[in-house]
Amino acid sequence: MKNLFKIFAFVLFVGMITTACEDSNNEMEMPSSIYQLAASDPDLSNLKAAIDKAGLASTLNESGNFTVFAPSNAAFSQFLSANGFASLNDVPTAALKEILLNHVLSSKVMASQVSTGYVSTMAKGSASATRNLSMFIDTASGVKLNGVSTVTQADIMANNGVIHKVDNVIGLPTVVTHALANPNFSTLVSALTRSDMPDFVGILGGNAGAPFTVFAPNNAAFGSLLTELNLPGLATVPTATLENALKYHVVAGANVASTDIMNNMNVTTFQGGTFNITTSGGVKITDANNRMANVIATDVQCANGIIHVLDKVILP
């Protein structure tokens, strides 16, 4: 009987130790929060310092499902140098907060879920106090964000989301940033930067006259225009025709989101002419020549304006 009791006690003791070890291992394997992971990674020490300065530690330490594109220390050093800051302390706190939020999505997106297209970050720009900034993700070769930053390490799991490391700080995107980032706007970019054009990059990349609403023709739209005008290429479009056409796609001084568009709305453009918008059967623009273009994508929110995509170049 004594031997039986000893065997039972021994088995119970072993079971208790095993359970305790399993509980201990489970505790060790539980992932930390995004903030804690940044704090414990030597290559993210600048990010951790930036989070602290911007007052975002509690946000990234609380429960939730965030995706953070985390710039490395080298990325922060490059950002500071490029923008003339001697140190992180020299970056205005309010600006730093929005820059950091421009790296954060409010949902958890694993690498296997990433696809080419637009997502909304948690940042806001000067164009709108209520609309979050858009980010363009391009998966054609790796994962590139807004055309300026590439994911170098994916799927670092946290208990409140996931971290993907990136090689550059992602600044607040302007209209120009988003035009450059999306390959479907490559012809538009070529038009805007043609040597005989005004400094459209400086205008649409800045804040003078902002916010801008840009109705941006895609590559196919420009191809159709060249066919319509019987021209062999963009370089052969007359200077005045191209300049006036590009200005005709821009509204200055207004961030007109899709929710602001009304049926039979007359719009005055940067060129000085007007066009009419109707919303029956989809949003359509009728230009000064009674030609019609469809709005095929909306609300690419930039720091200094907003972009809607057209399937046809409109003409004043």
Topology of helices and strands:
Blueprint: H1 2-29, H2 34-40, H3 45-54, H4 57-61, E1 66-71, H5 73-82, H6 93-101, E2 104-105, E3 117-120, E4 134-138, E5 144-145, E6 149-158, E7 161-166, H7 175-181, H8 186-192, H9 200-204, E8 212-217, H10 219-229, H11 239-248, E9 250-252, E10 265-268, E11 274-278, E12 284-286, E13 292-302, E14 305-310
Parallel strand pairs: 1-7, 8-14
Antiparallel strand pairs: 1-2, 3-4, 4-5, 5-6, 6-7, 8-9, 10-11, 11-12, 12-13, 13-14
Helix pairs in contact: 2-3, 3-6
What is the H/E order?
A: HHHHEHHEEEEEEHHHEHHEEEEEE
- What sort of overall outline do the alpha carbons produce when their principal axes are compared? elongated
Main-sheet strand order equals 2-1-7-6-5-4-3
Structural class: alpha+beta
Intertermini distance: 103 Å
Low-confidence stretches: 1-28
Strand content bin: 15-25%
Question: Which percent range fits the helix content?
Answer: 25-40%
- Gyration radius, rounded: 26 Å
Please give the largest β-sheet: 7 strands, mixed
Number of helices: 11
Number of β-strand runs: 14
**How would you state the average pLDDT, rounded?**
92
Describe the structure in your own words.
- With 316 residues, the protein is an alpha+beta fold.
- It has eleven helices and 14 strands.
- The chain has helices spanning 2-29, 34-40, 45-54, 57-61, 73-82, 93-101, 175-181, 186-192, 200-204, 219-229, 239-248; strands at 66-71, 104-105, 117-120, 134-138, 144-145, 149-158, 161-166, 212-217, 250-252, 265-268, 274-278, 284-286, 292-302, 305-310.
- It has a seven-stranded mixed beta sheet. Strands 9-8-14-13-12-11-10 form a seven-stranded mixed beta sheet.
- α2 packs across α3 (45-54) and α3 (45-54) crosses α6.
- The longest helix is centred in the N-terminal third of the chain and has 28 residues, at 2-29.
